[in-house]
Write a structure and sequence with these properties.
Gnk2-homologous domain-containing protein, repeat, five-stranded antiparallel β-sheet, binds 2-acetamido-2-deoxy-beta-D-glucopyranose, GNK2_sf, Cell2Cell_Antifungal, signal, Killer Toxin P4, Chain A, 10 strands, single chain, 7 helices
Length: 273
C-alpha cells in the first residue's frame, strides 16, 4: 500500500508537471515546485548503523544544509579517524533560486537522500530546484557525463514540428554559447535551461552541456519537452505550459493546496484499486 501511494504520487507528479490543463494548474503549481522529486540513486555498499561513517555523514549533511543559506553551491569533505570513515558531499541549487528557497530545497533533499538511501555509502537526490550527493569515494571536481536521468515529452503536433525543433535548436545553441554555470534562454514558445555542478570548471561545463544537449536533440526528437541529466550537468527545454511556469509560485500556495493533492491521490488509488 505504501508503495502504491508513492507510485501513484510519482506518476501523478510526472504527468501533471508537464501538462497544463487549467484544471490541474493548482496541482501543477505544487508538484512542480522547487522541492518536487526528479530522481535519486544509491550506491550498493552499506555502512553499519551507529558507525563513525554515519556520524560523519550526518555532519556532512548538516554542513550542506547550513551552507545553502548563503551559497548556491558548496562541497565538503568530512575526515574520519580512519580512511574508511571519510565522506565527500556537495549540493547545487538551480542558479536562479533565492537563498531562502535554496536552503529549503537542500534541507528537503538532504532529508530525502537519507530516506531514499538508508545506510548506503553513497547517495544522490535531484529535486526540481537542487541536487545533493554524498559518497565515500571521492567524486568532487571529476567530470561525469554519464546519463543519470532522461525524460522526453510526446511529440508536438506534426504541423508545428519544424518550428518547435528549429526554435529548440536555436535556444540550445544559445545555452551552449552562454557563460556561467546556470543558463536560461527562450525563443517563441520554447524555453531552455542548463545548469552545471559548481565543482567543475568552465570548459568542463561546456563539454558536459554539449553532451547533454546532443542527447536532448537526438533522443527526444520533436518532443514538446525534454530533460537530460548527466553526472555533472543538465539541460532541459519545454514549450509553453510545461515545467517553466510553476516554480516561482510555490511556497504560499503549497499549504493551501495540500488537501487537494491528498484528495486527488486518494481518488487515483480508488481508481487504481
Ligand atoms: C566505500 O565503502 C565500502 C563499504 O564499506 C567499501 O567496500 C569501499 O571500499 C569504500 N570505498 C572507498 C573509496 O573507501
Ligand atoms: C528559473 O528559471 C526557469 C527557466 O527560465 C524558470 O522556469 C523558473 O521559474 C525560474 N525560477 C525562479 C525561482 O525564478
Amino acid at each position: 500500500m505504501a508503495i502504491m501511494t508513492t507510485n501513484a504520487m510519482l506518476s501523478l507528479s510526472l504527468s501533471v508537471c508537464f501538462i497544463s490543463f487549467p484544471f490541474f494548474l493548482a496541482i501543477q503549481t505544487v508538484l512542480c515546485s522547487t522541492d518536487s522529486f526528479v530522481f535519486g540513486g544509491c550506491s550498493q555498499p552499506q555502512y553499519a548503523p551507529n558507525s563513525a561513517f554515519e556520524s560523519n555523514l550526518n555532519s556532512l549533511l548538516t554542513s550542506l544544509v547550513n551552507s545553502a543559506t548563503y551559497s548556491s553551491y558548496n562541497s565538503y569533505t568530512i575526515m574520519g579517524s580512519t580512511p574508511q570513515d571519510v565522506v565527500y558531499g556537495m549540493y547545487q541549487c538551480r542558479g536562479n533560486l533565492s537563498m531562502p528557497d535554496c536552503a529549503t530545497c537542500v534541507a528537503r533533499a538532504a532529508t530525502r537522500v537519507g530516506s531514499y538511501c538508508p545506510t548506503a555509502c553513497g547517495g544522490a537526490v535531484q529535486l526540481q530546484g537542487c541536487y545533493v550527493k554524498y559518497d565515500n569515494a571521492t567524486f568532487l571536481g571529476a567530470v561525469d557525463k554519464n546519463e543519470v536521468y532522461k525524460k522526453c515529452g510526446t511529440s508536438v503536433e506534426y504541423a508545428k514540428e519544424d518550428e518547435i525543433v528549429g526554435r529548440r535548436d536555436a535556444v540550445m545553441s544559445g545555452l551552449m554559447n552562454g557563460g556561467g554555470m546556470f543558463r536560461v534562454g527562450g525563443s517563441g514558445e520554447v524555453q531552455g535551461l542548463a545548469q552545471c555542478m559548481g565543482d567543475i570548471g568552465v570548459g568542463e561545463c561546456r563539454d558536459c552541456l554539449s553532451e547533454a544537449i546532443g542527447r536532448l536533440k537526438s533522443e527526444c526528437g520533436a518532443a514538446a519537452y525534454g530533460d537530460v541529466y548527466l553526472g555533472k550537468c543538465y539541460a532541459r527545454f519545454s514549450t509553453v505550459g510545461a515545467w517553466g511556469n510553476a516554480a516561482k509560485r510555490h511556497s504560499p500556495l503549497t499549504l493551501d493546496y495540500l488537501p487537494v493533492i491528498g484528495l486527488l491521490s486518494f481518488l487515483m488509488l480508488k481508481v487504481a484499486g
